[in-house]
Specification:
This protein is an all-alpha fold. It has a domain of about 140 residues: Tetracycline Repressor, domain 2, CATH 1.10.357.10. The chain is built from 10 helices and no strands. Helix 5 runs antiparallel to helix 7 and helix 7 crosses helix 8. The relative contact order is 0.11. Keywords: DNA-binding, Transcription, Transcription regulation. One of its GO terms (molecular function) is DNA binding.
Amino acid sequence: MRSRKSTEARKEEIVRAALTIVEQSGLDTLNINDIASEIKLVPSAIYRHFKGKEEIVAALIAFADKRLKHNVSQAAALDGSVISQLKLLFELHVKLLREEAAIPRILYFLLNSARDPELKANMLSVVGFYTQQVKELLLQGQEKREVSLDLDISAAAMLFLGMVQPLAILSEVNQEVLIECPPELWHIYQRAITI
């Protein structure tokens, strides 16, 4: 007989299964039956924890938010220069792409879809918060004279995110991109913000 899992453990299992499916097939094909099949449950067992697909997608967004916030807190806790904190944040973001390839797929799908404006707004809020954290690090860098005082902080924060987007897209074809390209991307970015 199968042992009962706690509600939190079951929800996490459902989110993990959904991430696997999104990574393999995309967000638009995600459905309750496939999630149930992935974790060897009946669909009604999924509905005990989530009302439907939209709640599961909201949980996926919350998962992405939690991971990004964790990365920000790790970078902020690093002793050393702001440049080293930004570098760590970039490296953690690339690591997240390697570990959770579904996250960019969720982002791109929601940004290009008009089906659920609330989910889209939630995802944009996550990205907005992350961008704001990068801006704050860059401002700290200016205060400490590690980052160019002439730097447009908003543009530099967007460029920080912009380094990650092509990696996410190109890694769909070649995972080596996530290993080969980040060091040089970081080198170019660091030179640009410290000139």
